[in-house]
Amino acid sequence: MLVYFPEPYRDELLYSLLARYHRHVGSSSPKQTLDDLFGCRGVIARLDLQGSLGHLSTHLPPGWGMSPERLAVDYTLFPYYLAFQPAGIRGRVLGALIGGSLAGLHLLLGLASAASRIRQLRFCPVCVLEMENTHGEPYWRRTHQLPGALLCPDHGVILRSSGIPSALGNRHAFIAATSANCDCGREVAPTSLENDETLLSVARACRQALEFMPQARNRETWATWYRNGLIRAGLSSSSGRVKLNELEERFRDHFGLALQPLLADVGLADMSWLVALTQRPSRALHPLLNILLQKFLKGLVSDEPFGTGPWPCLNPLSGHQGELLVERVATHRNRGRIVGVFECACGYAYARNVDQSSGTLSRPRPLRFGAEFDRQIRQLVDDQIGIRQAARWLHVDPRTVRLHAAKLNLNAIWAAASVSMPVVCDSGGRRKAWMDLQQKYPNLGRNALSKLEPALFMWLYRHDKEWLVTNQPAAKVSRRVRVVSPWASLDLEWMQRVADLAEEIRQELPPRKVTLAEICRRTADPIWLSSHLRRLPNTAVLLGRLRDTTASFQVRRVAWAAHELENAGQCLAVWRIRRKAGLSRQVAMEVKAALELAVSPRVPLP
Ligand SMILES: [Zn+2]
Ligand SMILES: [Zn+2]
């Protein structure tokens, strides 16, 4: 077993790790290194799919905890090469990588021709600079070795060939990236295509397939999906006859100048594969071809549920309400509906959804109101305008005004009737004390502050939590946390994503429960997060905190139900709210309190 093995960098290729090992230990020969790593000199070091991973994983230092499957999925090109392959082939290839023969694998995957794979290891000059600054040494990145990814997905720079051939002349060589072999290098695409949007989006789609391997489907399923897409786009009759000439023409139009270098990168010149993909191909086709066809079809039909853009901005305070200023719509699926989020540059955003079975389009629902709304609500509060008048002025309902004012921590004359805080109580100057504390120690996070004044913090936490949550500094990431593994930085990225998604769910009306499953459903690959949570400890803790308990969800439903009944002009009664909110007979104390609060007489509105 090895006593040393380099810590992998973000997105590092397994071959790169092995080569860095070879260099770091000053190995006398590649054969010696093979002996160290695999316990066998007959293994061949490969750039894309490494074999004998079973041997390798048993030789890694204890504590590395790296199963051969993980080595294949997280450090080789396995997920990209097999992104569109059925489960059976995935299993077969994985078995071969762990401990079988690699003969015929590329043929099985539609990558038999050497021209369909990268010919030389690639690098991005900007990445290399960053690597040298951060780590003191460059390394080979996985996302730079994907045939079809011609630009760096991070920088948009055209990738360069390092001159290190992928078919290693000396089959046992380990060549780490260095500032010498990553010096200038030949560009893998014409320089005129630097930062080309099409190439960049293809490179990112390749990375997406690598990092979030799509669910395994057989070729027939993919072919059916493609055929349906062509039918919807009017490029195929419903009986399945493809309008070849038109398809090819629109395909060429769609990718423009980027198409030729993309196809050349996988050793293709013609378009015969396009039809093969839609007719249950008898053999596997290159992953890039699937990616291109999917991008093409998405470009044709994904925006269809909301028509073609641009779409109007609906911000009544903007002075440009109704003008077609929203260029893009972000869509996601949610329980049989396609949800579109339309955001204008003025900061106003709204959502609409389409029921996929009936095709009905919902009314727009505001998500964010933009900076002008904030400015005006502050002004209205300063001018001591009554809530109903303010609501009319801002084109929203009084409850939204109230919630928004609370969010901005505005001291409105009508704030006492707040419904956003189920437990309204006198904080006895504690709120001020807490704000003073923050002013006194502007650099401290909430954790440190709570340790300075534990009693104050606990009181606010127990009795005035909603106010506390909106009036505390953001949680600080300790400076001592060093991002040493790609998982640590992934963990940080996911914390942010998960927090955003939980907030998005919380904003929805009627209220939806914030659960792990619901959060996962809204990510690009719903299975990935839940199956990797073990590696993302901070995200896991955060998820636990963000999740709704039954009671917290019921409290939100009570507030919503009361609001709905009030809007419908119905008299508020506990039984009515309970029925509307769908509460069970037994509810927690805090839900009872919320019910009582909802029916208690309000402070008279101005
Ligand atoms: Zn780069
Ligand atoms: Zn706008």
TrEMBL record:
Q: Where is the TniQ domain?
A: 4-159
The residues covered by the Transposon Tn7 transposition protein TnsD C-terminal domain are: 205-542
Q: Name one Pfam family in it.
A: TniQ
Q: Which residues form a coiled coil?
A: none
- Which protein are we looking at? Transposase
